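Example with several molecule types.
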Amino acid sequence: MSNRHYLHVDGVGMVFDTGKSKFTALVDVNLKVGRGEVISIIGHSGCGKSTLLNIVAGLTPQTSGVLLLENKEVAGPGPDRAVVFQNHSLLPWLSVYDNVRLAVDKVHSRRMDRKQRHDWVLHNLDLVGMSHAIDKRPHEISGGMKQRVGIARGLAMEPKILLMDEPFGALDALTKANLQDTLMDIQQKLGNTVMIITHDVDEAVLLSDKIVMMTNGPSATIGEICEVKLPRPRKRLELASNPEYIRARTAVLSFLYERQRHPKTAA
Amino acid sequence: MAMTAMNAAKPEIPKMASDTNSAEIVRIRPGFAATVASAMKSSPKIAGIAAVVIPPLVVTAILLLIWELLCHSPTSSLPAPTKIWSDSRDLIVDPFFVAGSQDIGLGWRVLTSLQRVFYGYGLAAVVGILVGAVIGQSVWVMRGLDPIFQILRTVPPLAWLPISLAAFRDANPSAIFVIFITAIWPIMINTAVGIRNIPQDYRNVARVLRLNHAEFFVKIMLPSAAPYIFTGLRIGIGLSWLAIVAAEMLTGGVGIGFFIWDAWNSSRISDIIVALAYIGIVGFVLDRIVAAIGNTITRGTARN
Ligand SMILES: Nc1ncnc2c1ncn2[C@@H]1O[C@H](COP(=O)(O)OP(=O)(O)O)[C@@H](O)[C@H]1O
Ligand SMILES: [Mg+2]
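Resulting structure tokens for the full complex:
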């Protein structure tokens, strides 16, 4: 079924040419993501998670392998693979509304008229709970709110896959939990396909259908894939004692801290 | 390296003389505010305004007094304030009189000069921003052109005048060209540095959205580089005003620069001093206008 091959990362490798020497970041990464799946990528810092995400986004061209989206090869960045950046990357001279509007105007200019685009911006800001601050500038809102706007901007492009690079990494625990819940709600409602990078084991288990665990770099690749068969909607309180939750969590922890101990912490 | 010289033109660096002044006023303010406030307890708002306005007035009065004392003697080579008042009263009180083709108020002369600045500086702004944006796109172009720019921008404005007179064979376009060539370097260099410093994140946003070149220029490049561009524009307007006064001294016409030269030739020292005051005030206002436009437009860009 084509569903299985919605996104297909096939034999992707990445060698950075740093002038003097070559640095092999990724080797032979193979990954299949189905439509509507949430997968997370976890691994120690510096292993190549961002590199992989940027390759999928088309922002960094891979040095080997191919990328297929709905069985078509993709190269270069595009709004069908919207990115939510770790540092939000909102344009500081634009209001919350205009940041989303910029994307909507560009991506949906043919399909929607002015009024529809306006409504679509408001709708997406409403989804992430930011209707109250549409006229604020990015520097006037909190870090969590900025990420919400970043997510709204990504969603508003109606991408085939939403790529998120440690979107909640810089947030405090409470804000983070709120945003995870919002993301799960929206994904449940809209059925988005999401690829999310994280270094937080609980976040990975809570959010994902599949957890992709990466080996340490250099020459990093996918070490193991753990399926999380928890029903949705997931409630974080009830999960704490759920056997499947505990199993997945233990699997990821033992991969990260037994088999892939960080070179610096292993001593 | 050559790049360090360019980086010197960062938005924070140029501290205009006026900024230093206001900083000093701020420091003096508490003492004055206390005195004035005790005098008018009932209205703190008036006290606040007075605390800003009174110190410069007092200082100016003291300076005028010292000047008066120094130049009071009839043998003094420079006129005292009272003499300037009696000599050049018409110039001071009415900037816009017309009493003959060369006997007009200083306001008219300033406007003539401003018109030249408007053309020369306007052209420098448009060309400087466009060329700076192109240069900023490429590290190699920037490195290659940087030494040339650094040399050209130190050429004094007046040194361009003979060349431009030879090229244009007419005083007015030559003066405009001198302004253009004087103002363009800081605008171009700062724009290029600003473009270089556009964060990769913004570029990535543009790439994901597939903005085309024109959209990228208008929606990302200009706003992101705006603080740098306005630093260049602000230095540029100051240099323009310096250049026009000097250029007009040589090219003639009805500008404020030629007026000074003419006054000197007919030994009207008082008139020269009045003209200097006009030039200073207009230069200050120009600087403030560009700074205010910059602050309005870049509001929020620098902070994030
Ligand atoms: N543009 C680049 N040039 C050279 N090396 C790079 C580049 N980008 C990333 N790397 C290297 O690739 C490795 C993986 O980086 P990254 O994908 O950012 O890791 P992660 O996101 O997992 O922390 C790191 O060792 C990093 O130094
Ligand atoms: Mg990373």
